[in-house]
Specification:
With about 500 residues, the protein is mainly α. It contains 24 helices and two strands. Belongs to the synembryn family.
Length: about 500
């Protein structure tokens, strides 16, 4: 072993001395492939030392060459020793992460059949390492993912690995037994691989339909992370994976809406959403919670209704997300509730995709009915969405007093404004109960202030007419037509 590995403490060399040691290791391993000059312990020690040196690409150039990657790949996929294979795979993973050009070098070697074959494994270590290798090759290479799915059973291997994790989640060992940390790392890497494959080979997503029940099982049975980071992996990865899959497929429906508990998936998604809205803000909402909103919207939209136009899933989601009495007593977006926290982000400039997902979700909750949408969230929130999507505001939607439950209570649709709030009059702009509105007593306006306010309102009404969103009559114009317009004196003194 001494003639190949460095004499200094493992991985401690720097600069030219490190380059010399790395060159010696790579050359020695290449020679071993042809003449088998190393003992198994020597070979594994050399790979282990190479892994440590390869964590820093400076003065490690021989690792990242075509010859270096080929040497490592042959040890990874041709060696009968599992230890040698894993040690080599770790070096390859580091190399592909640090030097993107090595990914194409790996793909050009043509080891796809062996890679996919090795992914069929009972080892958490192998699942993690092989999944990471394939995952990294999905970026910036010519890898043929459809070919891996059609000819080398890549989808079957991923589904098989997810099945193992689902079984472990649904039948945990008795007591508090510490699991191998590689198990969680393997699950995370498999989910990341699934997301990328279904993203870049979108025409083959149906091949992954059997993965949906396993994803759902893990989602509903896995212990929740701390409330400060509710979407830590694997939950963020599980939700991302569901985004790309066909949730209306025959294999998806029974798992998303199980006959023994229709609401299990929706309940878990709502639980994660509630925790997330308390834990994340702004850009974190954009990155972490947007996919959750999209999946929840899809679960709502695709919920089976059979002969009844309503379903327990839709009823549950509306009951949790539509404004309640508490929300409408304070004004929409002002209470400390899940609906209010969502509405407060409706105009979040730092989370554009998140706010778009929220508005689309609430439009879906409103049965895609513009009038009901305005009742549910108030015209103040609804107007921007309707204008951007070129949806006309129904006649009478802005009439006051507006009564709740226009299309909801007692109807087949059941998409009323709130939950158990009766038919109390609501301000159509703010969504607040008219009986709960409070106005500050302001000092009497001077005549100049009244004139300025009248001019400002005149301009606003003219601009609103030009948008074509709603048909309005300028009140100043109406007053003039009816002969109620009076020219005021220039000052209060003149009037006196």
């Amino acid at each position: 072993m001494a003639h190949l590995t460095g004499s200094a403490s493992l991985g401690s060399l720097r600069g030219p001395a490190k380059l010399k040691a790395v060159t010696k290791l790579v050359d020695g391993l290449a020679e071993d492939l042809e003449s088998a000059t190393l003992q198994p312990q020597e070979r594994d020690a050399a790979l282990d030392e190479l892994k440590i040196y390869g964590r820093d690409p400076s003065y490690s150039d021989p690792i990242f060459t075509k010859e270096g990657i080929e040497t490592l790949t042959r040890f990874a996929f041709d060696s009968p020793s599992e230890t040698t294979s894993r040690n080599s795979l770790r070096v390859i993973c580091n190399a592909m992460l640090l030097k993107p050009e090595t990914r194409q070098i790996f793909v050009d070697l043509g080891y796809e059949p062996k890679v996919c074959s090795k992914l069929k494994t009972d080892s958490w270590d192998d699942e993690f390492l092989i999944s990471r290798v394939v995952f990294l090759t999905t970026y910036g290479t010519s890898i043929d993912l459809p070919n891996l799915i059609e000819q080398h059973q890549l989808a079957d291997s991923i589904i098989q690995n997810l099945s193992k994790h689902a079984t472990r989640c649904s039948t945990p060992p008795a007591g508090k037994i510490s699991r191998d940390p590689m198990e969680k790392m393997a699950l995370d890497e498999t989910l990341k691989l699934l997301f990328n494959v279904t993203r870049y080979a979108s025409d083959h997503t149906t091949s992954f339909d059997p993965a949906i029940p396993h994803i759902v099982t893990i989602l509903c049975n896995h212990d929740l992370p701390p409330s400060t980071t509710p979407l830590d992996p694997p939950f963020s990865l599980l939700i991302n994976a569901l985004m790309n899959l066909n949730l209306v497929s025959p294999s998806a429906q029974p798992s998303l809406y199980p006959s023994d508990n229709d609401n299990s998936v929706a309940t878990r998604l709502l639980e994660l959403l509630d925790l997330s809205m308390k834990a994340y803000t702004d850009t974190a909402l954009e990155q972490n919670v947007t996919p959750l909103i999209c999946v929840l919207s899809s679960v709502y939209e695709n919920a089976p209704s059979s002969s009844d136009p309503e379903s327990p899933v839709r009823t549950l989601i509306r009951s949790q997300l539509l404004p309640s009495e508490t929300d409408r007593s304070l004004g929409l977006g002002k209470a400390d509730t899940l609906p209010s926290r969502l509405l407060r982000n409706w105009t979040n400039a730092l989370a554009p995709e998140f706010r778009k997902a929220i508005s689309h979700l609430y439009f879906e909750l409103s049965g895609k009915d513009a009038g009901q949408f305005i009742e549910n969230v108030g015209y103040g929130y609804a107007s921007g969405f309707l204008f951007q999507n070129k949806i006309a505001v129904p006649e009478g939607a802005m009439q006051q007093p507006q009564q709740q439950g226009r299309a909801g209570e007692g109807s087949g649709l059941g998409v009323g404004v709130g939950v158990g709030v009766g038919r109390r009059a609501v301000n159509p702009i703010t969504g607040q109960f008219l009986s709960e509105e409070r106005f500050e007593e302001l000092p009497e306006m001077t005549m100049e202030e009244k004139e300025r306010e009248a001019e400002r309102l005149f301009v606003l009404f003219e601009r609103l007419k030009q948008t074509g969103v709603v048909s309005v009559q300028n009140p100043v114009e109406t007053a003039m037509q009816e002969g109620r317009f009076e020219e005021l004196p220039d000052s209060d003194d003149e009037k006196k």
